[in-house]
Sequence to fold (293 residues):
Amino acid sequence: MMAEGIFIYLAAAIVILSVLVITRSNPVHSMITMLVLFFHIAALYVTLNAEFLAAIQVIVYAGAILVLFLFVVLLLNLKEEMVARRYIGPWPLGVLAALGLLVVIVLSLKSFIPGPSGVFTTEVVRAETNTKVLGQILFTEYLYPFEVVSMILLVAIIGAIVLAKKRLRN
Amino acid sequence: MPSAFLPEEYLPIVIFMMIVIAFGLGTLAAGIIFRPKRPYREKLVPYESGNPPVGEPRYRFSVKFYIIAMLFVIFDVEAVFLYPWAIVFDKIGLFALVEMLLFIAVLVVGYVYAWKKEAFRWD
Fold:
């Protein structure tokens, strides 16, 4: 009962905060709301027994990606956007798309069959702690994907520098 | 459906968060209640050491901030992988050390590249 209450609070807060993020006309307010949103999503991960993911949500998303977003906001000159009225476009189309998505979600949830339970049930993960279980699997079974991640990050570093430095010279 | 999971060990964090929010809101509320209210136009002007404010308060930041932020995100993701590694290190041992050194070696290549391309220089 308690768990359901917490989930309902988090789900409602996430939906409301997401709407606030995209409706604030001041982009900096939008970013602050997004920070609160990221913390709520982290709390949701904790209730899903994914503590490591929650930590990543705080470290990477709230810590780094939000800064990136904030810099985008400050790089662009958003004076016009702050005074312009929003959502005067075809909103019935948006409502229609949202309703269609809702129908798809409801239909897919109706035919939802939980898959067979694997080795790492909630109890096992809780006893071992999430990060430990993840580490054990990541560094033995999924060794190759882990090393591929370093390559992807390397590509990201080079790509970022190539794109940004070219701009700087001009 | 999996059974509802309630992480009791996170209760202190929840209580801590509640105290933080209550303290913040309480301080603001106390300020609203107790402070004298004499609003006039000059109080709304941005403070610039007594001079009348000049120019726009919002100006465009240099793109250099953005490069640093982008590189920070990448190395942040790299650092995140060290947490599970540090926890299981005593179980996997030398094998884990070698694979993590390999992982970091690849990223050091990127680091050296960034350094040589002067991505960390400000001018």
